[in-house]
Amino acid sequence: MQNPALVAAATTNTGRHFAELPATASHGPLRIEYRWVNETAADAPIAVFLHEGLGSVAMWRDWPQTLCERLGVRGLVYSRPGYGQSTPRAHNVKWPVDFMTAQARDVLPALLDALDIDMRERQRMWVMGHSDGGSIALLYAAFYPDALAGAVVIAPHVFVEDISVQSIAQTKRLYESTDLRDKLGRYHADVESAFYGWNDVWLNPAFKQWSIVAELASIRRPLLAVQGRDDNYGTMAQIDTIADRVPHARLVKLDACGHSPHRDAPERLNEAIGAFVLGSGDS
User: Fold this and answer.
1) pTM: predicted TM-score of the whole model, two decimal places
2) Which range among 2-11, 111-120, 197-206, 270-279 shows the weakest confidence by mean pLDDT?
3) In a domain, 100, yes or no
């Protein structure tokens, strides 16, 4: 039974739920939007999906469903604070340079606690992260090396490259001069919260020194890192660095694919993830 002090869930006709997380040293009380995929498969392992820097539950579209069916797992899809229908970022608040660390160390474990996902379930759990979500997945795997079956990271960032900053600056120009704001507004209750929370921290000069390379050596569980060769937000140096620091990691480099393989090359991505996860013996 869920602890009513930790979680209060409300279901909508879209299958959306909300979890209430208590305040901690790194954040105040939070309302987290989440959705289950294949929820009735109660005995199946869980795959937790961690979205990109402008993502949300809705922006994944049907990819989590497709992948979960292929893997035979349940999926937990949620919007991080500041995104989707989750608690928005106050407009006068700037995210700190280590904002992804707080998401991996505090927010994700608090959500798992609130949903009564116990340690036995977590030891069979896969974390699937894209872009910023990939970085958070790596950090979670490093901080809690025994609390997951493995991780799949898609176009993750482990340090800051000029190409990333340049593309993010270009995205800001598009947001402020085209209909990008309206398009993103379909997926976020407070689009300004989502966009500037992400954009401001990435364009903060202090963020150029951000790196999680040192943390990678703590990852013990199976790890798959995937990146498109045409990614305009990062080079292959990102996943090559992962391979240098995590010798057991497996890399997949996709031709004719940009920053979002689950949109650009979903069949090839699902094939690679399926072969890796199902071959690991943990699904």
Assistant:
1) 0.93
2) 2-11
3) yes
